[in-house]
Specification:
This protein has 480 residues and is α/β, with parallel strands linked by helices. Helix content is 39%, strand content 11%. It contains 20 helices and 11 strands. The chain binds coenzyme A.
Length: 480
């Protein structure tokens, strides 16, 4: 009897244990739990008209410790998407770019205004004890901290990952650094350093010339874009995990990601020459590394930049012309060489490879008789891929870019109207919020009161402490 009782108790305990296990497993699956409620668990589709259901990142608050270009590119984009971006600046001085490359005396430079639109500005001395206290309060109120200081600077402010994570376990801490962990991790890095270290410069330029950096800021703005994707992904993961994480984008990595086709070519080199590079057609041997390819098209279809009508006076009267194989016959007809369609020296792509320079010279004789826009119109009718070389002046004046909000004119209280680049990513239900950049400390008061909740008395104390105001200049000695 006793053994029977014992066995019963044992099996009851085992059943209890296994039930606990099941509960534990279910509890481990929050996604399943979410899905179980309200049918799919997702909110009902909004019935508001498209573009009137708020913005994609409404409700996300960013503590923006960024400066110069890479970090500000990231946070400006997130602000365009609806995030409340609070830019922390040094009292009295502000971000260094406010005064760099100034074109209007006394006003914030375009370097600053074009990278800090749609943000709010608060001045805080992050090394002042009261300033540290305010920052701790802000850490608790924000979702993401973004910074691109030199390595170690954030830690020196006392904002270590451990400190931040303790204050706010949901906080995502996103950083741009020049290099990832390794021999160069402590280096300060600017745009062109990254272009060189990421493989872009060695593969840009003409074969016979030195390496070249590009005008597009692939190191700074390019890495800022990578960081923005990292942040949005971390926000999405946080929905499941409930906790923040570190997001790191090294500029070297960002540039390499954009130059990946050149790493592709590096590996192809081991198996033979790169046929689509014009140096192959010219019989020039390849070295050990991916060479510079001038204006060759990277996609395997020969292309080059050709002069158009007016090139003698206009440095941008050029067009990019691709001799794509399927439209070769149309090209021959257009340039007055119909015989090339059947001539064995020109009829096939391999036959054309050793003659590309001469072929492009002949096409150029034709493009030089027309403006780049005329060439564009004529070629597009035949599906011949061409691209006019547009100057920044032409882009600034292009109506279609204004119409789509890619180029936006905003007003500014001290410098007047200026052009900025709006959101290049178009979301059909989240219309970009492109506003002017803030004046230095323009929102200090409202952030202290409305975001943190300080009282009038607190704010008065903070002001008196010197944590948010520029240190007083010492009074000049009276002239004798
Ligand atoms: N209050 C008080 N001090 C502040 C402050 C504030 N609100 N904001 C910044 N500072 C301090 C920092 O704490 C730091 O002090 P520390 O050196 O004593 O720690 C100091 O200002 C300067 O920061 P730092 O990032 O070192 O600026 P820098 O001008 O010396 O270097 C870069 C500039 C861009 C080279 C460097 O920040 C860097 O390598 N960043 C990472 C890569 C990057 O983004 N480069 C691209 C730039 S577009």
């Amino acid at each position: 009897m006793a053994t029977k009782k014992k066995a019963k108790a044992k099996s009851k305990a085992a059943a209890k244990k296994s039930a606990k296990k099941v509960v534990k497993l279910v509890a481990k699956k929050p996604a399943a739990k979410v899905r179980a409620g309200n049918g799919s668990g997702h909110p009902r589709p909004s019935t508001k008209p498209w573009g009137q259901a708020g913005r994609a990142l409404d409700g996300v608050r960013i503590l923006d410790f960024t400066h110069v270009q890479s970090g500000p590119t990231c946070t400006q984009l997130l602000a365009y998407m609806g995030a409340d971006c609070i830019k922390v600046e040094r009292p009295g001085v502000g971000a260094i770019t406010r005064g760099q490359l100034r074109d209007v005396k006394g006003a914030d430079s375009l370097y600053f205004t074009m990278l800090n639109g749609s943000k709010r500005s608060i001045t805080i001395d992050s090394k002042h004890p009261k300033g540290k206290e305010i920052l701790d309060r802000l850490v608790k109120e924000c979702d993401v901290l973004v910074e691109n200081f030199a390595p170690g600077a954030l830690d020196r402010m006392g904002l270590t990952w451990e400190h931040i994570h303790k204050l706010n376990p949901r906080m995502i801490v996103a950083s741009v650094k020049g290099f990832g962990p390794g021999p160069y991790e402590d280096c300060k890095v600017y745009e062109n350093v990254a272009q060189c270290a990421g493989g872009s410069a060695s593969t840009t330029g003409f074969r016979e010339g030195p390496p070249l950096v590009t005008g597009a800021q692939i190191g700074d703005s390019g890495t800022g874009l990578h960081l923005a994707l990292g942040i949005v992904s971390a926000l999405y993961q946080r929905i499941r995990t409930g906790r923040g994480q570190k997001v790191l984008c090294a500029m070297q990595d960002g540039v390499l990601n954009l130059a990946r086709v050149k790493l592709r070519d590096q590996q192809r080199l081991k198996r033979g020459p790169l046929n689509e590079y014009s140096q192959f057609g010219e019989g020039i041997p390849f070295g050990k590394a991916t060479p510079r390819a001038g204006n060759d098209s990277g996609g395997g279809q020969p292309g080059w930049i050709l002069k158009c009508k007016g090139w003698e006076d206009d440095p941008d009267a050029y067009i990019y012309f691709i001799t794509q194989a399927p439209v070769w016959a149309a090209i021959c007809d257009l340039i007055g060489k119909p015989q090339w369609k059947t001539d064995p020296d020109y009829a096939t792509p391999p036959a054309r490879l050793p003659r590309l320079r001469a072929i492009f010279d002949t096409i150029e004789q034709w493009t030089m008789t027309k403006t780049k826009f005329e060439v564009m119109d004529i070629c597009n009718k035949h599906d011949i891929p061409v691209g006019p070389i547009l100057s920044m002046k032409e882009i600034a004046e292009e109506k279609s870019l204004r119409d789509t909000g890619t180029v936006v004119e905003v007003d500014h209280p001290t410098r007047g109207a200026y052009l900025t680049v709006g959101n290049p990513i178009k979301l059909s239900d989240s219309i970009a919020d492109v506003r002017r950049s803030p004046l230095l400390g323009e929102h200090t008061d409202e952030i202290l009161r409305k975001v943190i909740g300080y009282s009038d008395k607190d704010v008065a104390e903070i002001k008196a402490s010197g944590a948010i105001t520029a240190p007083e200049k010492p009074a000049k000695a009276e002239a004798a």
